[in-house]
Design a protein that fits this description.
This protein is α/β, with parallel strands linked by helices and 141 residues long. The protein contains seven helices and four strands; from the N terminus they run αβαβααβααβα. It has a single domain, classed as Aldolase class I (TIM Barrel, Alpha-Beta Barrel), CATH 3.20.20.70. The chain has a four-stranded parallel sheet. Strand 1, helix 2 and strand 2 form a beta-alpha-beta unit. The chain starts with a helix and ends with a helix. Pfam families: Trp_syntA. It catalyses: (1S,2R)-1-C-(indol-3-yl)glycerol 3-phosphate + L-serine = D-glyceraldehyde 3-phosphate + L-tryptophan + H2O.
Length: 141
């Protein structure tokens, strides 16, 4: 789906939302409003306890979301977003520890089921990239 964005000859607007901030109901309403307003794609984050690769505003959103965030709730909202709009490109911005603690193969199987188009891992050590790449390539779109 991001290939479609590349072919367009106009600027793309891709807002970022931390799932679960301030809660999952509001996150979903915010995302629906963004889609209805015509965003080009979505970049969605999973809350993490030590979001060192982000600035203070996004760090604060992680801390608010962590009060009730779970991986299962993240996958539920991703499915709801995909049901709401099957065509909007969805990219995830996540931290490596979330993927490794959930299980790399399980993570990629879930995001495939949810219709996620891309994953950006903010802090993956280069030495670990092959583990993630192998799992991602096993679950093609």
């Amino acid at each position: 789906m991001f290939e479609t964005l590349k072919k367009q000859e106009k600027m793309a607007f891709i807002p970022f939302v931390t799932l679960g901030d301030p809660n999952y109901e509001w996150s979903f309403e915010i995302i629906k409003t963004l889609i209805t307003s015509g965003v080009s794609a979505l970049e969605l984050g999973f809350a993490f306890s030590d979001p060192v690769a982000d600035g203070v505003t996004i760090q604060a959103s992680h801390l608010r979301a962590l009060k009730h965030a779970t991986m299962e709730k993240n996958f539920q909202i991703l499915r709801a977003i995909r049901d709401y709009n099957p065509h909007i490109p969805i990219g995830l911005l996540v931290y490596a520890n979330l993927i490794f603690s959930y299980g790399v193969d399980n993570f990629y199987a879930q995001i495939k089921e949810c219709g996620v188009d891309s994953v950006l891992i903010a802090d993956i050590p280069l030495i670990e990239k092959e583990l993630v790449l192998k799992s991602a390539q096993k679950t093609p779109n």
